[in-house]
Specification:
The chain has helices spanning about 1-15, 55-60, 60-70, 75-80, 135-150, 185-200, 200-210, 230-250, 250-255, 260-265, 360-365; strands spanning about 25, 30, 35-40, 50-55, 90-95, 100-110, 115, 120-125, 125-130, 155-160, 165-170, 180-185, 220, 285-290, 305-310, 315-320, 325-330, 340-345, 350-355. It is an alpha+beta fold. The chain has a 6-stranded antiparallel sheet with strand order 14-17-16-15-18-19, with helices on both faces.
C-alpha cells in the first residue's frame, strides 16, 4: 500500500493547487500535466469530466473511443438513438447513384440517413466532383490545391477497392485534413494522382462552373462494418475505470491491484488467443459482452454504469442505450466499496445517481465471470 499512501498525499497537495499543474495519471502512472477526460465519452452523451489523465494517454485512447462509438456492437444502437448529437457510423459506406452510374462514398448519419462525402471521381477520362454541400466540396478542393502546390498528391493514402468502379479521392472526416484515394487497382490510383497533379486547372474549372452539391432520392446504400472487439472492449473497461476514479477518487484506482486492468486498457498487455478462422480472437480476461443479459435491469433511454462486488471480484456493469450490457472485471473483491451507479442520457441531459440495489442480488446470483 506504499504507492497508495504516497499518491494520497500527492492528491491532497495537488487539490490545493488552483490550476493542478500536474497529476499522477491513472493510466501511465507518470506525474504529468492533466487533460479533460469524459467519464463516458462525449460522443455517447457523457457529461462528466475528470482531470486524472495526462494529455498523452488521453490522445492515445482516441482510437479505442472511436472504435466503441463507430465500429462495435453498440454502433447501430447509437445511430438509432434519439439524440440531439449528430453521429456517424464508421467506416465509409457506399451509395450507388443510378443516374450517374457511380458508387459514391457516404457517411451514415442518425436514423441511417446517408450523407455524401466530398469526393473527386475519375472514370476513364471523365472527371466529376460531388458532395453534400458547396462548403464541403470547397474544403476538399482547398486541400487538393495545397497538395498540388507541394507536389504531394502521391502521398494520399491509397485503398484498393476492386468491387466498386471509379477511382476517387474523398475527404472522409470533415474536421480532419486527411484524404483517401480509393481505386480498383494501383495503376488506376496512379492515373488519378497524375491527373490531379498535372491537370488541376480542369478540377478548378469544374468547381467554378457548376454547383456540384447533390442529393439522391431513395438511396441504396451498401454498408461496410468491421467490428474491432478488442479495441471496443478496452474502451468499455476505460469507462469503468474512469467511473471509479470519478466516484472514489484517483488514489483508489492508482492502487497496484488495478495494474493488470490498467495495462490492458493501455494496450500494453493484450493476450490475443490463437483461434480458428471461425472464432473471434478476443482477449476476454476483463470484459464480457453479456448477450444473455435480460436478467439484469436496464433503463431503455439511458446508459448505465454500476459497480459492485460479484462473488470474488469487484465488477462494473456497463449498459449502453439500454440494450447492450458488458461486465468488466476490475480487481479482486473489495468489500469496503458500497455499490455505486449512475445513468447517462444520449443528448447531454445531466446524468443522475442510480439507486438500484436489486442489481446486486442479480449480479451475485451469476455463477461465474467468463
Amino acid at each position: 500500500m506504499e504507492r497508495l499512501a504516497i499518491v494520497r498525499h500527492t492528491r491532497e497537495l495537488t487539490l490545493l493547487m488552483t490550476d493542478r499543474d500536474t497529476i499522477m495519471c491513472i493510466y501511465c502512472l507518470e506525474q504529468r500535466a492533466p487533460s479533460r477526460e469524459h467519464v463516458l465519452q462525449e460522443s455517447l452523451g457523457g457529461d462528466i469530466v475528470i482531470r486524472d489523465l495526462c494529455v498523452d494517454c488521453n490522445a492515445r485512447f482516441s482510437a479505442i473511443d472511436q472504435a466503441l462509438a463507430e465500429s462495435s456492437v453498440i454502433s447501430l444502437d447509437r445511430l438509432m438513438a434519439r439524440s440531439g448529437v449528430r453521429v456517424n457510423l464508421g467506416p465509409t459506406h457506399l451509395l450507388f447513384d443510378e443516374d450517374a452510374g457511380l458508387w459514391k462514398d457516404v457517411r451514415i448519419r442518425n436514423r441511417f440517413s446517408p450523407e455524401l462525402l466530398p469526393q473527386l471521381h475519375l472514370r476513364g477520362n471523365e472527371l466529376s466532383i460531388v458532395g453534400a454541400d458547396r462548403p464541403s466540396i470547397d474544403a476538399l478542393i482547398d486541400l487538393l490545391r495545397e497538395r498540388v502546390a507541394k507536389k504531394t498528391v502521391a502521398d494520399i493514402h491509397v485503398k484498393i477497392d476492386e468491387q466498386y468502379g471509379s477511382s476517387r479521392i474523398t475527404r472522409p472526416r470533415p474536421k480532419r485534413r486527411d484524404l483517401v484515394l480509393r481505386a480498383p487497382s494501383h495503376d488506376e490510383a496512379g492515373k488519378l494522382v497524375r491527373y490531379v497533379q498535372d491537370h488541376f486547372d480542369e478540377v478548378e474549372a469544374i468547381v467554378a462552373g457548376d454547383p456540384v452539391a447533390s442529393t439522391i432520392e431513395n438511396p441504396r446504400v451498401h454498408g461496410r462494418m468491421v467490428y474491432d472487439f478488442n479495441a471496443s472492449h478496452r474502451a468499455v473497461a476505460k469507462v469503468a475505470m474512469n467511473f471509479l476514479a470519478y466516484s472514489l477518487g484517483a488514489p483508489y484506482v492508482l492502487d497496484e491491484s488495478f495494474d493488470a486492468l490498467r495495462n490492458y486498457i493501455r494496450g500494453d498487455d493484450l493476450r490475443i488467443p490463437d483461434v480458428s478462422e471461425e472464432q473471434l480472437a478476443i482477449d476476454r480476461r476483463f470484459v464480457a459482452w453479456l448477450q444473455d443479459a435480460p436478467t439484469i435491469p436496464r433503463i431503455p433511454d439511458r446508459h448505465t454504469i454500476y459497480v459492485t462486488n460479484v462473488r470474488d471480484a469487484l465488477c462494473a456493469v456497463v449498459v449502453f442505450y439500454g440494450k447492450k450490457t458488458f461486465l468488466v472485471k476490475l480487481r479482486e473483491a473489495d468489500h469496503d466499496v458500497d455499490p455505486i451507479g449512475r445513468t447517462f442520457t444520449f443528448d447531454g441531459t445531466p446524468s443522475q445517481v442510480l439507486e438500484m440495489p436489486e442489481w446486486v442480488e442479480l449480479l451475485q446470483s451469476r455463477e461465474r465471470f467468463d
